[in-house]
Design goal:
Structural class: alpha+beta
Helix content: 40-55%
Radius of gyration: 24 Å
Shape: globular
Distance between the termini: 75 Å
Order of helices and strands: HEHEHEHHHEEEEHHHHHEEEHHHHHHH
Number of strands: 10
Amino acid sequence: MSKKIAVFFLAVCVLVGTVAAQKPVKLVIAGRDGDYGNAMQVAVDAYMTKNPNVTFEVLKLSGDDVYQKTVIDLRSGTGTYDLILIDDPKAMQYQQAGWLEDLDAMFKKAGQNLDQDFIQNVINLCRYPNGPSGKLYSLPFVGNVSLFAYREDLFAKYNLPAPRTWSDVLVAAKKISENEPNVSGVSFRGVKGNPILTAFLPIFWSFGADFFDAAGKPAVNSPEAVKALKFFLELAKYGPKSTPMNNTAQIRDGLLAGTVGIAPEVWPAWLGKINDPNESKVAGKVKITKHPSEVKKSSPMNGIWHIAIPSSSKNKQAAFDFLTFLTSRETQKLMVLNAGLPPSRKSVFEDKDILAKYPWYPAIMDALENSVARPRTLFWAEIENMMGGLVQEALIGAKTPEQVLNEANAKLNEIIKQ
């Protein structure tokens, strides 16, 4: 009799465990709009097919909204969200405040380890303190990074070498500008704030400049920074007169129309149609690569977005299961092919199906491995707006490079003392 009772009890336990495992769960994701939202939806739909007991509310928010809403919620501990997207420059705020779940501990509890397929330079930013020894608080949702584009056919026409340094770029821009009446030698974003500063930073860093010195003091008026800005302004002479007003659409459309010889700053989302002969007049003629070097190595700007589990989430285990699914090799490939979302795993960049659709994707991996992160500071938004405004003043000739950078250094000092 006791054996029958034991068997019955075991059966009940198995049944209860099965029911518990299938208990309906709703995950709320504070996500992004646009291509990022489309990619997230691809992953959510695929996950729900395999896990019908899990439903989702995916909020497709602007970058500003996702930041403001998540900070308010996490600061109060309300627990509205189970997963959140974080723009990389803001990640330290979340990491420092203790708002995010320790993923190392969750992997250990699940009997798993973070595999080595992720690009190390990217994963280091997901840890705090940043680097291989910090605790893991997020995973990369998108392997975004700035890239460099140029017309291979025009370089061949004028016997120009592939640009390895920014000095090579200047020579090529001048040659193309002087000999191609319908092509700008160079074209970059010149709108004040984020656009022009993002265009400038790969030059700024590769000339040996940085925002802070080794002691943590503002250093944007260093001799290296002045040389970088003077070079940037010299390069702009071979761009269109509309440069101070140019933004993403002008650069992307100019590349597709064949009216741009060199685009010193492009992003993966701009390039989906670059080899489509129905959309591009120069299909197969544009080379995508990491940025050139100068005093220092190639310095593309790292533009990843993190995905993390708030410590206040009420569904941490279900969120972790979806997080590992979302960042898996299979799902990253699915999001690339169906939504054009750049991955962060080496194996996905090397996948034959992806290379058939996007033969320039290895350039993203190369750029990510060489990428430079924006300063780890809580004040990046203020710094970006301030410095991006001043750099544009130099571009339009309102102030000299020295005046701009001295003013920027003084203002940077004020910002970080808040």
